[in-house]
Amino acid sequence: KILFAMRLDQEFLNHKTYFFKLAYNLLGERQEAEDIIQEVWLKFLKIEHLEIKNIKNYLARMVVNQALDRLKELKKQREFYKGTWLPEPWLEEVISDDKSNEVPSLD
Fold it and tell me: Of 59 and 87, which is predicted with more confidence?
């Protein structure tokens, strides 16, 4: 069981940048994206993992769903904000050279 937990941890860490990019592309805020990643990981630890065939895809779907839910909440909050909302700038140090973690373009 410990080896399985270590494998899950490693699988998550291997793709954390990819998950972050997914959340950031939807939310446009670094802190919100990091919060989503943390929430997803905590939820993932509580579920049964035996039926999951592809952990990366499963976690990616969880990240997207959680980010979309958060985006709905943020849009409601922004409806009452009188100023202009702009996404935070993307900081280059976050981007990795690992091509396996690239987020596909929506174009």
Answer: 59
Token couple for 28: 């446009």
Q: Which of 87, 90, 100 is nearest to 16 (CA)?
A: 100
Helical ranges in 15-79 per DSSP H: 16-27, 30-46, 55-79
Quote the strand ranges of the chain, DSSP E. none
- H or E element that contains 83: none
Say which residue, 64 or 100, is predicted with more confidence. 64
Tokens representing 71 are 């985006």
- What are φ and ψ of residue 59, in 5° steps? -65, -40
